[in-house]
Amino acid sequence: MPFKKTNLSEEKTFSVKDAAHMRIGVLVSEWNEEVTSALLTGALSTLEKHGVKKSEIFVQYVPGSFELTVGASLMADAMELDAIICLGCIIQGETRHFEFIAQAVANGITQVGIQYNMPVIFGVLTTDNYQQALDRCGGKHGNKGDEAAVTAIKMVDLRWNITA
Ligand code: DLZ
Q1: How much is the pTM?
Q2: Which residues are catalytic, by number?
Q3: Which residue segments constitute the domains of the chain, with CATH numbers given?
């Protein structure tokens, strides 16, 4: 059943498939570490809540969100994974860095997914300020790490069960 909610942290358990046999990579940007570590906490607890074994979750770090693309490509190449969740936090500043990085990461993650025919999930916050980021990593707007984990499970299920 399609869902209309904008906050997937509240996604009901019954609509997410059992993820017991999934192998999931989680790639975390160290930039804005307070936020990305909270996204990671959310993603890990949601993966485990839906049955992914701790031993089948592989966490790696990259320096900044810009490196998520190559990091995801390296992970996809080196490991037998069913999906990769990319977690990052890009905050609008005075420079145009924000737009360059956000655009590059969105495009890059999409390309890695297509290249490896694997769900590569965009769990990257792109916010105007730090408070908005805090609101989305366990604050009043939920935890987007949870949402990225739910999305990964749903996409692996699609990958495994898609029929012509
Ligand atoms: C350089 C930079 C800036 C200005 N801002 C952010 C940010 O808000 N979030 C983030 O994840 N990374 C940022 N970076 C670092 C870049 O992602 C990248 O690590 C460097 O440009 C080196 O390639």
Answers
A1: 0.92
A2: 97
A3: 30-163 (3.40.50.960)
